[in-house]
Design a protein that fits this description.
alpha+beta; 5-stranded antiparallel sheet; 5 strands; about 35% helix; about 35% strand
Protein backbone atom coordinates (compact mmCIF):
# COMPACT_ATOMS: atom_id res chain seq x y z
CA UNK A 1 0.00 0.00 0.00
CA UNK A 2 1.25 3.47 -0.87
CA UNK A 3 1.76 6.07 1.81
CA UNK A 4 -0.21 9.32 1.98
CA UNK A 5 2.70 11.39 0.62
CA UNK A 6 2.70 9.30 -2.57
CA UNK A 7 -1.05 9.80 -3.00
CA UNK A 8 -0.63 13.52 -2.39
CA UNK A 9 2.06 13.65 -5.09
CA UNK A 10 -0.33 11.91 -7.51
CA UNK A 11 -2.97 14.54 -6.70
CA UNK A 12 -0.41 17.30 -7.31
CA UNK A 13 0.32 15.81 -10.75
CA UNK A 14 -3.43 15.88 -11.45
CA UNK A 15 -3.53 19.58 -10.50
CA UNK A 16 -0.54 20.34 -12.72
CA UNK A 17 -1.96 18.47 -15.73
CA UNK A 18 -5.25 20.34 -15.36
CA UNK A 19 -3.47 23.66 -14.76
CA UNK A 20 -5.12 24.18 -11.37
CA UNK A 21 -2.98 26.61 -9.35
CA UNK A 22 -1.89 25.48 -5.90
CA UNK A 23 0.81 26.16 -3.32
CA UNK A 24 2.85 23.35 -1.89
CA UNK A 25 4.01 23.68 1.72
CA UNK A 26 6.11 21.30 3.80
CA UNK A 27 3.19 19.14 4.96
CA UNK A 28 0.21 20.24 2.89
CA UNK A 29 -1.03 21.85 -0.29
CA UNK A 30 -3.36 24.82 -0.60
CA UNK A 31 -5.55 25.65 -3.54
CA UNK A 32 -8.20 28.25 -4.16
CA UNK A 33 -10.60 29.00 -6.97
CA UNK A 34 -13.39 31.50 -7.33
CA UNK A 35 -16.10 32.82 -9.54
CA UNK A 36 -18.46 35.78 -9.21
CA UNK A 37 -20.37 34.08 -6.38
CA UNK A 38 -18.16 31.60 -4.51
CA UNK A 39 -14.62 31.35 -3.19
CA UNK A 40 -13.24 27.82 -2.70
CA UNK A 41 -10.31 27.05 -0.43
CA UNK A 42 -8.96 23.54 -0.01
CA UNK A 43 -6.14 22.41 2.26
CA UNK A 44 -4.89 18.85 1.85
CA UNK A 45 -2.47 17.52 4.45
CA UNK A 46 -0.08 14.64 3.90
CA UNK A 47 -1.25 13.07 7.17
CA UNK A 48 -4.49 12.16 5.35
CA UNK A 49 -6.79 15.00 6.40
CA UNK A 50 -8.35 17.88 4.50
CA UNK A 51 -10.30 21.08 5.11
CA UNK A 52 -12.53 22.79 2.59
CA UNK A 53 -14.38 26.10 2.76
CA UNK A 54 -16.67 27.47 0.10
CA UNK A 55 -17.64 31.03 0.93
CA UNK A 56 -20.65 32.77 -0.59
CA UNK A 57 -19.19 36.12 -1.65
CA UNK A 58 -22.59 37.81 -1.63
CA UNK A 59 -23.41 37.09 2.00
CA UNK A 60 -19.95 36.33 3.37
CA UNK A 61 -21.25 33.12 4.91
CA UNK A 62 -19.99 29.60 4.35
CA UNK A 63 -21.89 27.82 1.59
CA UNK A 64 -20.07 24.59 2.47
CA UNK A 65 -17.54 23.64 5.11
CA UNK A 66 -16.03 20.20 5.28
CA UNK A 67 -13.24 18.50 7.22
CA UNK A 68 -12.24 14.90 7.25
CA UNK A 69 -9.90 12.24 6.05
CA UNK A 70 -9.06 11.40 2.48
CA UNK A 71 -8.26 7.91 1.21
CA UNK A 72 -6.14 8.34 -1.93
CA UNK A 73 -5.56 10.56 -4.96
CA UNK A 74 -8.82 9.45 -6.60
CA UNK A 75 -10.73 10.47 -3.47
CA UNK A 76 -9.09 13.91 -3.57
CA UNK A 77 -9.89 14.31 -7.29
CA UNK A 78 -13.54 13.40 -6.67
CA UNK A 79 -13.81 15.81 -3.75
CA UNK A 80 -12.27 18.64 -5.77
CA UNK A 81 -14.62 17.91 -8.68
CA UNK A 82 -17.66 18.06 -6.40
CA UNK A 83 -16.51 21.43 -5.05
CA UNK A 84 -15.83 22.72 -8.57
CA UNK A 85 -19.34 21.60 -9.56
CA UNK A 86 -20.74 23.97 -6.92
CA UNK A 87 -18.75 26.82 -8.46
CA UNK A 88 -19.77 25.85 -12.00
CA UNK A 89 -23.48 25.69 -11.18
CA UNK A 90 -23.32 29.29 -10.00
CA UNK A 91 -21.99 30.57 -13.34
Amino acid sequence: MMDKRTYLQAFIIHLQINQIPFKEKSDHIYLSQSNHRFFLEMLVYENGTFETLITDLGSGSFAKREQGEWVDANDLKARLQSYQDILNKAR
